[in-house]
Design brief:
The complex is a heterodimer. By secondary structure, chain A is an alpha/beta fold. Chain A has 21 helices and ten strands. Helix content of chain A is 67%, strand content 9%. In chain A, the strands form two sheets. Chain A has a six-stranded mixed beta sheet. Chain B folds into three domains: 183 residues, ABC transporter type 1, transmembrane domain (ABC transporter transmembrane region fold); 114 residues; 255 residues, P-loop containing nucleotide triphosphate hydrolases (Rossmann fold), CATH 3.40.50. In chain B, the strands form three sheets. Chain B has a six-stranded mixed beta sheet, sandwiched between helices. Chain B has a four-stranded antiparallel beta sheet with strand order 2-1-4-5, with helices on one face. In chain B, strands 7-8 form a two-stranded antiparallel ribbon. Chain B is elongated and about 120 Å long. At the A-B interface, helix 2, helix 3, helix 5, helix 7 and helix 8 of A face helix 3, helix 4, helix 6, helix 8 and helix 9 of B.
Chain lengths: 622, 631
């Protein structure tokens, strides 16, 4: 082997240990961080720890007391003490035993209660912090991260961190006390028999840790396979019409069986992992007990030890069996807390990219003029792909600006920049001369409202949904917003009127109705700038016409921006911007643009006189 | 703390009287969680799934009993092992040897039985769970679509997951229950057998525990349920914040939501602490009772040893048994709840499995051959989802082989129902639907489905690659064939521009594609299916004019050489059809080609002359006025 090869091998080894070390360092800092969070409840932590120590000591007294009681009967017989006196003497260990047992129970209760309390308090704090963070993280973060992952972190990972105190920290103390003191007591009573009695400990500790870690790894895998299975089922049920339309039930059953078998096999494997392990642990425990019986019995016969000592040893062993098995659970609890914690903290430590500048001031609206100054934009996920290039326009109060263009031209992006869902990468957007990056987000978003394409409804009453941005609004205003969006009559026809619950688990509304509810919701904000992002596409033309009529009154006091495909929605605008590839390629009124015979005209022809002839014409125009 | 937070909201309100109209998360109505502990008919249903594995069930119960037996035996053997040492008269090595030998034998049997029983129980319970799930899933593939229409997917999913899991839990615990009962009786028997009076005395603490458990159980369960419920409330609120985050931010609701969420999170903390108290209060009670029993054995049993009535080994055995005999009582009371839950789940599962299959193949159903002529005919068809309210009334028309017919009419006119009948999603009440000259009820559904391809208004894509979605169930279709189909419908170019081309993974329901693109993929899928008849429900809205044009071209390709029945909204599509059938209120009011219908000057010509690109663009009043004058 050449020295080069050796060198590179050493390097590889070094970098490997570095990676390992980094991982350990991260795990450790995560665990320390959770520990610090626990310590913020010092009294509960102290009570839990104190009770743990007491419970462990009391539990270890039980075998001693039992052994002493057994011995007392023996010495009485051997010594020929009078029956009644010896009988009287038995009361002392008996009452002590009762007291110790009861106290141990009380301390165990306290130990577990306070340990749980610490965990639940930490979980409560983390839950609030997590909720707050999720609500504030910018759109670009939510675009990137799958909502299912966020839900998992908030549910499962938070549980992992919660359990850390009771299943890891308290258990370390409890197990150390029990096993340590128990071992000390046994060995100090009789070193030889003590070692024999403890012989099962290393094996069980190793087996249970190894098994738990393996079960954990396979659990994650099983979780994955089960979610594939549930996705197969859910898609099948949601798309049942497609399944029936293609008569593909047989194929779907095959798909199901594949996913199902995949999960079942692993579930069986897991049985094969834990059963041999637990059985082997039990066997090794009993084997050690057998040895104690054999050796202890022989020495008993030889008169070297008392029967009480043997009883003490056997009881110690029974008491130690559980804690020794729990070593595995404890190891697993540390592993779980560090992986769950690192995911959770990773999220809590995310930087919020869109937030108030240091000296941000409240937005002040005077003329209500919106201006785009040479605005350029690229999404943070694809910084090299410019979505908007040097875009400028101005809109005054009372004006309606329509934006039209082919898909992917950047229209919706323009809508998202005004309320600062994303920050421009070049140029600036101003409202009455104030750069929107220098005003507070709260005032900006009250002043600028976007009616989104895909309306999200909350599972609550229609009233609450409409008043979402202004929860203290009077009922009258809510109804007026309903009228504005042409929903009022429909709502009154529902069983509970404005109190009807809609959303995921309520009355289902059609796409058009959902969009109109979103419009009503936006109207409640009385915004200075309102952007309709293709928000009437699913509404039939008649209703749209009526909404437009209502909007004309509404538009007097504000800037209205309409993004739409349907020409009927935009041809009455004061100015129409035709956007393509992030640039404004044509601008003017409907008449001016028609006269220009350019892109807008081609689109107009396409929509009013569809047919092969127009298609070719359009093709030329493009 | 929660009160303090809620107070902040009160102080903020503008009129000083009203609380905010705001909630976070919704209160989910929980399903009945507990049923009767024993329900014979439900048990019979569950047994039907266990039956195939009955041999293994017998083995596992036998193993369980052997396992319990050895557990009972071990303290007894210990007492014999200790005893010889006590009495110098019986001091012989062989007795001790025999005792230790018996111990070794017992632990080996214990090992084997435990291993056997746990493995078999674990695996059988898992297998049964998957079997039940498969039976339900398979059944749902056949039940009528009207059942699927009115049942939420989420509800069915909770049957397929939560409910089958509680049956599995039940199966596992019932075997353990048998073990627990055996252990309990064994301990009681042995204690009484070793010494009747001492046994009776020791066992007297047992009823105390039983009574305490009975008083405790309903209260504890209420506390656990409350904790469980606040959990799902908090998780629901959190999920809502995640899904609705864009709305939350654009409406600046973060502050209000946070305060409302704090209330829910705090309720969750509170109920969990209460539940913990209930769960833990049993610990000192059981420990105290154990201590009491041990004290009694020491005082009374100790005197007996002194009197020579019993051996000291018996005393030791007693002390061992006492430490064990509370366990079975504890687990049996918990298993009672598992059982009740399983009965409630079992009932829900039975409800799904019992849903009638309306549309079924006849015993002598024919296979529709691909060589059939491809005609579709409705003969006096009357149909309604509710038999009293017909959606189609006496509808008759014929689509000749290779012809494209456009179905037009206002929404609610029965177009979609007519389309569903061609595929026999439902059975007609009167009349006949014929495909290739055969009544669809005389054909196998499988062969009918192969010859009638369907494109739905809302394209539905599955998780997987673009390739898998186009190929779908035609797994025999080659890559070339898939690409050819994609090219034919004009989807190839945009597919190639995706990150991994045909191997690009589609997100949930294809959410990384635009609606128009999904539409094109669903066209390609129908092309690969290569059926003689194509039934298509044209998308109405949300597609921009650019993609629209591509779709029009694709449609022409798709209909080439096939019989087509198209629910049409776009004038371009309608004009291109060989024949147009105008439906209104479930009846055919006009039929003919474009020029004929224009010439007769009815509803169609009026609509056409309004110059809208789509019938859906026509303002409501125009169609209603027209419809009125037509009839």
């Amino acid at each position: 082997m050449s020295s080069d090869a050796i060198g590179s091998a050493t390097n590889a080894l070094n970098s490997l240990t570095h990676v390992e070390a980094a991982r350990w360092g991260r795990d450790l800092s995560t665990l320390l961080r959770i520990t610090r969070m626990n310590l913020r409840h010092p009294w509960q932590v102290a009570f839990a720890m104190g009770s743990t120590i007491m419970a462990a000591i009391l539990q270890l007294l039980i075998p001693q007391l039992l052994g002493r009681a057994v011995d007392q009967t023996q010495t009485a017989i051997g010594g020929g003490v009078a029956g009644t006196a010896a009988g009287q003497a038995l009361w002392t260990p008996a009452l002590l035993l009762l007291a110790v047992s009861a106290l141990r129970g009380l301390f165990t209760m306290a130990q577990n209660y306070f340990a749980e309390a610490v965990g639940h308090h930490v979980a409560y704090e983390l839950r609030l912090a997590y909720y707050d963070k999720i609500q504030r993280l910018s759109f670009s973060f939510h675009d990137r991260v799958h909502s299912g992952d966020l839900i998992t972190i908030g549910m499962l990972d938070l549980q992992g961190v919660r359990m850390y105190f009771s299943t890891a920290l308290v258990r370390v103390l409890l197990l150390t006390m029990l096993i340590g003191i128990g071992a000390y007591m046994m060995i100090s009573t009789d070193p030889m028999l003590g070692l024999v009695a403890l012989s099962f400990v290393p094996f069980v500790a190793w087996r249970s840790s190894a098994t738990q870690l393996r079960l954990r790894a396979t659990w994650l895998d099983l979780h994955e396979r089960l979610s594939v299975l549930s996705r197969v089922m859910e898609e099948n049920l949601a798309g049942i019409r497609v399944v029936r339309a293609f008569a593909s039930q047989a194929y779907e059953m095959l798909k199901f069986d594949g996913a199902s078998k995949n999960a079942l096999d692993l579930a069986h494997d897991r049985v094969d992992i834990y059963v041999p392990s637990t059985s082997a642990m039990t066997l090794s425990f009993f084997f050690a007990m057998g040895l104690v019986l054999w050796i202890g019995g022989s020495r008993l016969v030889a008169g070297e030890i008392s029967v009480g000592t043997v009883a003490t040893f056997l009881t110690f062993m029974t008491i130690l069996q559980m804690p020794v098995r729990q070593i595995g659970l404890m190891v697993n609890a540390f592993a779980r807390a560090s992986s769950c914690g690192s995911r959770l903290f990773g999220l809590l430590d995310q930087e919020i990219t869109i937030r108030d500048a240091l000296e941000a001031r409240p937005l002040e609206i005077s003329d209500g003029t919106l201006r785009f100054h040479n605005v350029s934009f690229a999404y943070p996920s694809a910084e090299n792909r410019a979505i908007l290039k040097n875009l400028s326009f101005e809109a005054r109060r009372g004006e309606t600006i329509a934006i039209v263009g082919p898909p992917g031209s950047g229209k919706s992006t323009m809508a998202h920049l005004v309320p600062r869902f994303y920050d421009v990468t070049g140029g600036a957007i101003t409202l009455d001369g104030q750069d929107i990056r220098n005003v507070t987000l709260a005032t900006l978003r009250k002043a600028v409202a976007v009616v989104q394409q895909d309306a999200f409804l909350f599972t609550t009453t229609i009233e609450n949904n409409i008043a979402y941005g202004d929860p203290w609004a009077k009922r009258q205003r809510i109804e007026r917003a309903g009228e504005f969006a042409q929903l009022h009559n429909y709502i009154l026809g529902l069983p509970a009127g404005y109190e009807t619950v809609v959303g995921e688990r309520g009355v289902s509304l059609s796409g058009g109705q959902r969009q109109r509810l979103t419009i009503a919701r936006t109207m409640m904000l009385r915004p200075s700038v309102v952007v309709f992002d293709d928000s009437t596409a699913a509404t039939d033309a008649g209703t749209e016409q009526r909404i437009r009529a209502a909007m004309r009154r509404f538009a007097k006091d504000r800037v209205t921006i309409i993004i739409a495909h349907r020409l009927s929605a935009l041809m009455h605008a004061d100015q129409i911007l035709f956007v393509d590839n992030g640039e404004i390629v044509e601008r003017g009124t409907h008449q001016e643009l028609l006269a220009k015979r350019g892109r807008y005209r081609a689109l107009y022809d396409l929509q009013t006189r569809p047919g092969d002839d127009i298609m070719t014409q359009y093709g030329d125009a493009r | 703390m929660a009160q303090g937070r809620a107070g902040e909201l009160e102080a903020d309100r503008d009129d000083g009287r009203r609380p905010p109209r705001a909630v976070v998360g919704s209160h989910r109505i929980e399903e009945e969680m507990f049923g009767r502990a024993f329900d014979k008919s439900i048990l019979r249903r569950i047994w039907a799934f266990v039956r195939p594995y009955r041999a293994r069930v017998v083995i596992t119960i036998a193993a369980m009993l052997i396992f319990t037996g050895t557990q009972l035996l071990i303290p007894l053997i210990i007492s014999y092992a200790i005893d010889p040492g006590m009495n110098p008269a019986r001091n012989d090595r062989s007795a001790q040897l025999a005792a230790v030998g018996a111990f070794v034998l017992a632990i080996l049997v214990n090992f084997a039985a435990g291993y056997m029983q746990e493995t078999v129980v674990g695996k059988v319970a898992e297998t049964v769970l998957f079997d039940i799930r498969r039976a339900m899933f398979g059944h749902l593939q056949k039940v009528s679509l009207s059942f699927m229409d009115k049942t939420e997917v989420g509800r069915l999913m909770s049957r397929l997951q939560g409910d089958v899991n509680s049956i599995q839990e039940f199966l596992e615990t019932s075997v353990y229950s048998i073990g627990d009962v055996a252990l309990l009786f064994g301990i009681v028997f042995l204690m009484l057998w070793l010494d009747f009076r001492l046994g009776l005395l020791t066992l007297s603490v047992l009823p105390v525990l039983v009574i305490v458990r009975i008083v405790w159980l309903p209260r504890a369960r209420a506390a656990f349920m409350a904790a469980h419920e606040t959990n799902s409330v908090v998780n629901g609120a959190q999920a809502e914040a995640i899904h609705g985050v864009r709305t939350v931010q654009s409406m600046d609701r973060q502050q209000v939501n946070f305060i409302l969420f704090d209330d829910k999170a705090h309720a969750n903390l509170r109920t969990h602490l209460i539940a913990a108290k209930y769960a833990l209060v049993m610990v000192p009670i059981v420990d105290g009772l154990t201590g009491l029993a041990m004290a009694a054995v020491i005082v009374v049993g100790g005197s007996m040893v002194l009197n020579g009535r019993i051996d000291v080994g018996v005393l030791v055995a007693y002390l061992f048994y006492i430490q064990r005999f509370f366990d079975p009582i504890r687990s049996l009371t918990l298993q009672y709840s598992v059982m009740q839950r399983a009965m409630a789940s079992g009932k829900r599962l039975a409800d799904v499995l019992d849903v009638k299959i309306d549309v079924q193949d006849k015993p002598n159903a024919k296979v529709l051959s691909p060589e059939m002529d491809g005609s579709v005919e409705f003969r006096d068809v009357t149909f309604g989802y509710n038999p009293n309210r017909s959606v189609l009334k006496n509808v008759s028309f014929r689509v000749n082989p290779g012809e494209t017919v456009a179905l037009v009419g206002p929404s609610g006119s029965g177009k979609s129902s007519a389309m569903a009948l061609v595929h026999r999603f439902y059975d007609v009440q009167q009349g006949q639907v014929l495909v290739g000259g055969y009544d669809v009820r005389d054909l196998t559904q499988e062969s009918l489905g192969r010859q009638v391809a369907m494109v739905l208004q809302e394209p539905f894509l599955f998780t997987g690659t673009v390739f898998e979605n186009i190929q779908y169930h035609k797994t025999e279709a080659t890559r070339d064939k898939v690409i050819e189909a994609a090219k034919a419908v004009g989807a190839h170019d945009f597919i190639m521009s995706l990150a991994d081309g045909y191997e690009t993974q589609l997100g949930e329901r294809g959410d990384n594609l635009s609606l128009g693109q999904r539409q094109l993929i669903s066209f390609a899928r129908a092309l690969v299916a290569d059926a003689k008849i194509l039934v298509l429900d044209e998308a109405t809205a949300k597609i921009d004019s650019y993609t629209e044009m591509q779709i029009q071209k694709a449609l022409i390709k798709l209909l080439e050489g096939r019989t087509g029945l198209v629910i049409a909204h776009r004038l371009a599509t309608i004009r291109g059809a060989d024949r147009i059938i105008v439906l209104q209120n479930g009846q055919v009011i006009a039929a003919g080609n474009h020029d004929q219908l224009i010439a007769t000057g009815g509803l169609y010509s009026k609509l056409y002359n309004l110059n809208y690109a789509s019938f859906d663009d026509i303002p409501e009043h125009d169609t209603t006025v027209q419809a009125g004058s037509q009839t």
